[in-house]
Design goal:
The complex is a heterodimer of chains A (117) and B (112). Chain A is 0% helix and 51% strand. By secondary structure, chain A is mainly β. In chain A, the strands form two sheets. In chain A, strands 2, 4, 5, 6, 9, 10 and 11 form a seven-stranded mixed β-sheet that branches. Chain A has a four-stranded antiparallel β-sheet with strand order 1-3-8-7, with no helix packed on it. With 112 residues, chain B is mostly beta strands. Chain B has no helices and eleven strands. In chain B, the strands form two sheets. In chain B, strands 2, 4, 5, 9, 10 and 11 form a six-stranded mixed β-sheet that branches. A five-stranded antiparallel β-sheet of chain B has the order 1-3-8-7-6, with no helix packed on it. The chains are: A mainly beta (117), B mainly beta (112).
Amino acid sequence: GAVVSQHPSRVICKSGTSVKIECRSLDFQATTMFWYRQFPKKSLMLMATSNEGSKATYEQGVEKDKFLINHASLTLSTLTVTSAHPEDSSFYICSAKRAGHSNQPQHFGDGTRLSIL
Amino acid sequence: RKEVEQDPGPFNVPEGATVAFNCTYSNSASQSFFWYRQDCRKEPKLLMSVYSSGNEDGRFTAQLNRASQYISLLIRDSKLSDSATYLCAVKYYGSGTYKYIFGTGTRLKVLA
């Protein structure tokens, strides 16, 4: 069964709306979660690393004021796309790794398909 | 140079064929390696981790070559259901945190 839950799976909204996406680890604690973005037929692009209890680490070129990340607990990270515009339309995927298992792979959420009209 | 590179394909192979993909990485300090499978419009799912000694899981064999900085995935006796995009992922420690970087993926189409 799924070990990482991502919600919502699909969002369609008007330009200028802010959208919040949740990523939950269901049966393990995750001190670190990752947020990726994927355009059609392209690879996953790491946007940021979400750290529980501290600020997220953003990759070069990713606007931290545009993509707000909050990791308030060991099982939940949220990504808020602020004032979304059509160019923000994409597939957003989170992943999580079990705390204390540095060599274990990540587990991915189902992804959120965001469409901004 | 990209941190992780893959041939995007597509690789079109007949059922029953053996097909191999390579993935090169640039960071020599990379610590862990993985192969993921991604179906169209779905999230990636872990196929297998890649160990230094090489590892096999049924029809799938993964190998790591640290000297040449690449990993490989071999699929034997291809099935129609193997059609998907195969992503390699590399983990390394940088900028105070672990990072997982993905290749662009290699598309495989197994034909009847």
